[in-house]
């Protein structure tokens, strides 16, 4: 860990409820007057947000998987150095919607690039920064798809548009990560109610 802050990430397939839960934890910290930073990947800085638009653009169908991996890592490198580490050094609690685990699940497993390659690239990108705690929301691809279509009837981005097989592979990747990092990752069943999930997160957060 860097500095005195705590680095907390939220992970899981699209539609699992990460954004909902991270906002609840942020509201809880605000109420307790604890300094926190709410951020997300890809994004979080001006440069990282520009990279996000490049990656998720629905028209960029010709994007090579190697390009995709490096763009996520480039976005992360900027985010870690410009925003996350300075906040941790000031003792701020950093809540981040997705981090390296997402690259392992989506690109390592989903795009079949392999975990080792993703780890090498991301180790360079992050300088070895690892979350203190990660909340992994698990959900079936079928349920996730229903939620995404219901969510404001928005158009699905380039990743969300990929088929159900890709998303099954991503979910499998996240569950494999959990098996290897039980000390860092708390697995939560995303099919439960928002309140039930948050009470588990709150209880865990208070204990770390
Ligand atoms: N536990 C839950 N049960 C039912 N619907 C949920 C739950 N959590 C989130 N949702 C809804 O599902 C959709 C996706 O949730 P969101 O938090 O945006 O997921 P993510 O950030 O993981 O993609 C939203 O419309 C949200 O209101
Ligand atoms: C951070 C990251 C995200 N992604 C993907 C997952 C999402 O489909 C997309 C955008 O993430 P996100 O903004 O979390 O989308 P959502 O709120 O719908 O869950 O980027 C990767 O494939 N690799 C990564 O390293």
Strand-pairing-aware structural class? alpha/beta
Strand content of the residues, in percent? Answer: 5-15%
Number of helices: 8
Shape: globular
CATH superfamily: P-loop containing nucleotide triphosphate hydrolases
Task: Report on the biggest sheet.
Answer: 5 strands, parallel
Order of neighbouring strands in the sheet with most strands: 2-3-1-4-5
Question: Which architecture does the CATH hierarchy give at level 2?
Answer: 3-Layer(aba) Sandwich
Ligand inventory reads: adenosine-5'-diphosphate, thymidine-5'-diphosphate
Number of strands: 5
CATH C-level class: Alpha Beta
Give the fraction of residues assigned to helices: 40-55%
Spell out the helices and strands N to C: EHEHHEHHEHHEH
- Measured between the Cα atoms of the first and last residue, the distance is 13 Å
What do the pLDDT scores average to? 94
CATH topology value: Rossmann fold
Low-confidence stretches: none
Radius of gyration: 16 Å
Integer tally of domains: 1
In short:
This protein is α/β, with parallel strands linked by helices and about 210 residues long. Helices cover about 55% and strands about 10% of the residues.
Summarize the topology:
Blueprint: E1 7-11, H1 18-31, E2 36-40, H2 46-56, H3 65-89, E3 93-97, H4 100-110, H5 115-126, E4 133-138, H6 141-150, H7 164-180, E5 185-189, H8 194-207
Parallel strand pairs: 1-3, 1-4, 2-3, 4-5
The chain binds adenosine-5'-diphosphate (ADP) and thymidine-5'-diphosphate.
Residues 14, 18-19, 40-42, 72, 97-98, 102-103, 106-107, 159-160 line the site of thymidine-5'-diphosphate.
EC number: 2.7.4.9
Protein name: Thymidylate kinase
Family: Belongs to the thymidylate kinase family.
